[in-house]
Amino acid sequence: MEIKTRKKCAICSSPITTVLNLGFMPLANHLLLPSELALKEKKYPLTLCFCLRCGLLQLGQIVSPDVMYKDYLYVPSNSKTLLNHFSELCEEIVKFNPKYKFVVDVGSNDGSLLKFFKKHGFKVLGVDPAQKIAEAANISGIKTLPFCFNKLQAKQISKKFGKADLVTATNVFAHIEDLYDLYQGVDLLLAPSGICVFEVSYLADMIQNSLFDSIYHEHLYYFSVGSLLKLFEKTNFEIFNIEKINMHGGSLRVWLKKKNNKKIKVKKDLLKSFFLDEERKGLYQPSTFFSFSKKIEKLRKKLVPLLLSLRHKKKSIVGFGAPAKGNILLNYFGIDKKILDYIVDSTSYKQFRYTPGNHLQVLPEETIYIERPDYLLVLAWNFSDEIVKKHKNFKGKFILPMPKIKIV
Ligand code: JHZ
To answer: How many CB atoms lie within 10 A of CB 101?
Structure first.
């Protein structure tokens, strides 16, 4: 089955309430080949549901991972910011325990994070269902298994490769449907003293800054610390530390240990302060998410007229970056070929394909120096500092749509 409807909460099985409906959307990372343009494009419903009991915000629909990840085109290695971030994450973990030797990275993509651990002398293993990308990682020397991570795979990995000291996962734990199977798998794979460090987008930032473009079919869950604490109650893990990080418009770095490992101290006061702050921000109230849709409308009413008025003045506008989030912004706001001429992106897998829904062509980044558009709408706005710095010789202007509309 390509898509199924979620009927109950993924953490506590309680009934869930729809709080936001983005209509039918194409898969945000499915850039089309020229040969696919004439075919009828698949679109799937995209709704957000809230659980009153445990506060988990979750998608109302689940598209099969086979459909989403087999021909996956996203790689993190095109961003210096992200690579620096991975280097810093690796250093922080090595500092926490210099004795760790074997790391498994779930959703390892092209091995960008594992390369840093390898430099530190770790035995490294990646797991990622994106077959072409896993193959490229293997060729580059990062052993990668081309699977979705689950309990069964974890059992086989630990049998074949031994117990891991460390499991890492950056921007992937919100993509896995069965959360209990996932953490049972991590439990099986980790040595008793081992830890798991994962990063996920943070719900508080998404709400505060109206970052609705991170809502797409890959992201099944939008975690608050409160919902994570509920989730881990029913697992063998507990959170011992949490950091707020800037990545992707605001994320959490969560550190887990096994409950019976008493050697690592839990930062209880810190967890409590996150919880109280989230309560103050209304993250456990459905009304917060009902008013979220008004904030999205406000943004549309500012951004679309701005772009249209530039077009009326005969200015050319090009999209910068073809991230998944950009495709949600363009489709939901109806920004199409009448507004943008094309898109540029440095990812070779994405170039000469077409964006889902509005079919804008994706061209290499250098095109902006040949065609010289007047404006660049930065769809990869989470890397705007890097992009503006890299293209300081570009003569046009940059429009940053998020977290606040800005022209630089
Ligand atoms: P970027 C991905 O989302 C997918 P996306 C995933 N589902 C997830 O959870 C989030 O990350 C967190 C391009 N670019 O990272 C490269 C340039 O062309 O914001 C990328 O295509 N030139 C796993 O897709 C895109 O922008 C540049 O100089 O929303 C950025 O995509 C830079 C810096 C980037 O993720």
So the answer is: 15
